[in-house]
Design goal:
The complex is a heterodimer of chains A (88) and B (524). Chain A is an all-alpha fold and 88 residues long. Helices cover 78% and strands 0% of the residues of chain A. In chain A, helix 1 runs antiparallel to helix 2 (36-54) and helix 1 packs parallel to helix 3 (60-83). Chain B has 524 residues and is of the alpha+beta class. In chain B, helix 1 packs antiparallel against helix 6, helix 1 packs across helix 14 and helix 17 (442-468) packs antiparallel against helix 19 (481-510). Chain B has a domain at 57-106 and 224-338. The chains are: A mainly alpha (88), B alpha+beta (524). At the A-B interface, helix 1 and helix 2 of A face helix 1, helix 7, helix 10, helix 11 and helix 13 of B.
Chain lengths: 88, 524
């Protein structure tokens, strides 16, 4: 029970934080290179926040579903934004 | 604010287990880190020669640079160097040899060696702080510990949130000792929360930066991250060597030009502290001078110059830095307490020792919450946790003080073996304390270990006085304030350890008898 939620935070939370850092880096005004360091700094609180949020779900399955789903949505949005050339 | 009881239970479990797993390493990191704040002052305490050392002249530093560039072709590609000043009276130069090993040279040792100059106590404490003294994996381990620490902070705030405001200033001494320790744990945790949040983030970043960049590169940066990092983190533009020889400028010229460039941007007090020189001797030689200016959370700024002509290439100075450089400067300054005035290091010292107490009290609370109230004999888990807490935490305090005493003994008797002597003393003392605590009843080993810590810590100024002839009053009379304060703080901490030893003796005799911290009743 605890371990399935912990793994959701650890793994799905990692990808969710990565997707959020990517979206921030690419969608903010200016080239993505200009926000590398703030992105790296922001990654850790995002990951820790996602890992903590995982324990707020009533089951490991729900935690995996939400965090994994959000991570996939985040990477999907990042890919779409770049494929459409809306960000650079 | 109300939380569902299942949620509260889950976060309590997260707080307990992340706290226990990371707590021991965090105690070490905070205790050693609190002392590391004063790393510039420790060399002057460790050796009399360093205490009375005057600041090296820029001409001497120039001879060091010329000597290194002449003897070591690899240093011409890239060499770093300190400007002699208040922080580092003696300059040193550092570069990577063909195999990638960093070498350090001083004016007395132009051949260079892999051992940084002024190793000794500050270097040992720093290694204990960021890696527990373990090579390579220690840094990653402490990175993982920083993440668990972040999770412990988050879950701790969540479980405390419903009563956070109403209990903030409650410290209830009395019969219910668990309540007292809980109050102390909570008030320190909440009041120093911003500092803890900052340390968990900056600590994770400093330990795991390269791991994180490697992981994020293919995920979100298209594999182009490593190529973009030099522009984001350095100031000097990347210039390939032209293959044409040209005279490289001088330290004095770079210093004057960088101060001039800073002044042109309205920064009157730019003080160069170190430089990075690339392609020395080539027409495309570049020098990046980094210096400090006051009144900023990220005091470090830098100026990039053509090393030969002194032409200004780029700046990242206070008020005009881009987001990357401003964040990087603030991250470093916040973690190391290198901003503001002279009170900031003391604040960091107090918060660091307070942080160590926070983790210690967390372990005590774990034991107290599982105490068997109706019998003297306690469960095996509680006894082992008590033994580990005493052996690792108080044992570490003993080991650090023993390293200080050893520094004086070896400086006086075997100066060639000071570094090895400090290290062996520290780790052997720590291991002996842990072994001792593992074998004894916790109530007994706690007071023995605290008396030992009091004795060894008080021996620090005595050893200093006997070996170097610098007693607190002689240091004060000579105006050597760095060694004076090291001795004074050691005395104060020795006194504090003695008070704690008295308190735990009293608790063992007169306190609640059904506990790991009570002496067995006579005849029992």
């Amino acid at each position: 029970m605890m371990w399935s939620r912990a793994s959701a935070g650890l793994v799905a939370g990692f990808f969710l934080a990565a997707a959020l850092v990517g979206l921030g880096g690419w969608a903010l005004p200016g080239p993505w290179q200009s926000t590398i360091v703030p992105g790296l700094v922001a990654f850790f609180p995002l990951w820790i926040g996602a890992a903590g949020a995982a324990f707020g779900f009533s089951s490991g399955r729900r935690a995996w579903g939400w965090l994994g789903g959000l991570a996939l949505a985040g990477f999907g949005a990042l890919w779409a934004l770049r494929a459409l050339g809306w960000v650079q | 604010m109300k939380l569902k009881s299942a949620t509260l239970r889950a976060f309590t479990a997260v707080h307990t287990w992340t706290g226990l797993v990371a707590g021991f390493a965090l105690f070490v990191a905070f205790y050693a880190g609190a002392i590391t704040v004063f790393h510039h002052d420790l060399p002057a305490w460790q050796s009399r020669a360093a205490a009375s050392q005057s600041v090296q002249s820029l001409d001497d530093a120039q001879r060091l640079l010329d000597g290194v560039l002449q003897r070591h072709p690899e240093a011409r590609t890239h060499v770093g160097m300190l400007f002699p000043g208040a922080e580092w009276p003696q300059s040193s130069a550092y570069w990577q040899d063909a195999s990638g090993t960093w070498l350090f040279a001083t004016l007395d040792d132009l051949d260079g060696s892999p051992k940084p100059p002024q190793a000794g106590l500050p270097e040992l404490l720093n290694e204990l702080h960021y890696s527990l003294g373990l090579p390579v994996v220690g840094t990653w381990l402490m990175g993982a510990v920083s993440l668990l620490y972040g999770l412990a902070l988050l879950s701790g705030v969540v479980i405390h949130l419903p009563k956070l405001v109403q209990n903030l200033f409650a410290l209830r001494p009395g019969r219910n000792l668990k309540q007292f320790w809980q109050d102390a744990h909570n008030v320190i945790g909440v009041l120093s929360l911003p500092m803890h949040v900052m340390f968990s983030i900056t600590g994770a970043l400093l330990c795991l930066l390269f791991v994180l960049m490697t992981a994020l590169d293919p995920l979100v940066y298209d594999g182009k991250l490593m190529g973009a990092v030099p522009v984001a983190m350095d100031t000097a533009p990347v210039r390939a060597a032209a293959g044409v020889q040209a005279p490289t400028g001088s330290l004095a010229m770079w210093r004057a030009r960088s101060i001039e460039a800073a002044r042109a941007q309205g920064i009157g007090d730019f003080e160069p502290s170190y430089l990075k020189l690339g392609n020395a001797g080539d027409r495309n030689a570049v020098v990046e001078v980094t210096g400090e200016s006051s009144r900023s959370l990220g005091p470090l700024g830098s100026v990039a110059l053509d090393a030969g002509t002194g032409e200004l290439l780029a700046t990242q100075l206070l008020g005009r830095r881009d987001a990357n450089h401003a964040t990087l400067a603030a991250t470093y300054a916040l973690h190391f307490g290198e901003y503001g005035n002279a009170l900031v290091p003391w604040l960091y010292f107090v918060l660091g020792v307070g942080g160590a107490f926070l983790f210690y009290s967390g372990n005590l609370l774990w034991i107290e919450a599982r105490r068997k109230r109706r019998q003297q004999a306690q469960g095996r888990a509680q006894v082992n946790m008590a033994r580990a807490t005493v052996g690792v935490c108080i044992g570490f305090c003993v080991a650090v003080s023993a390293a200080f005493v050893a520094a004086q003994v070896f400086e006086a008797l075997a100066p060639a073996h000071v570094d090895a002597g400090i290290r062996w003393t520290c780790f052997l003392a720590w291991a002996a304390c842990a072994a001792w605590a593992a074998l004894r009843a916790p109530a007994r080993s706690a007071r023995e270990m605290l008396w030992l810590a009091a004795g060894v810590t008080t021996a620090i100024p005595v050893a200093h006085g006997l070996a170097a002839g610098l007693w607190p009053w002689t240091s004060a009379a000579a105006g050597l304030w760095a060694p004076f304060w090291v001795d004074a703080v050691a005395l104060a901490m020795g006194f504090a350890f003695a008070r704690l030893a008295l308190a735990s003796t009293r608790r063992a005799r007169e306190g609640e008898p059904n506990s790991v911290w009570a002496d067995p009743a006579p005849g029992a």
